[in-house]
Amino acid sequence: MEDKKNNLAFGKKNYILMLVGIVALAIGFFIMTLDTEPYGLGFLGITLGPLVVLAGFALEFFAIMAKDKTQE
Fold it and tell me: Membrane-spanning regions, if any (predicted)?
């Protein structure tokens, strides 16, 4: 019989990591909106929110570059 290969670009692990990264990005942007200081110049808008967004982008980069063992 012929082997049926998965034609998806990424494996299940990659897609789960991408979804977690998107959620982290959304949480980071939401945190920035919670800042009560004028023009968002408080701790939430200038420090915590951008760090969470940066972590989300790093997770997205890792999700794209990671090799899924089930893909082989």
Answer: 15-34, 40-66
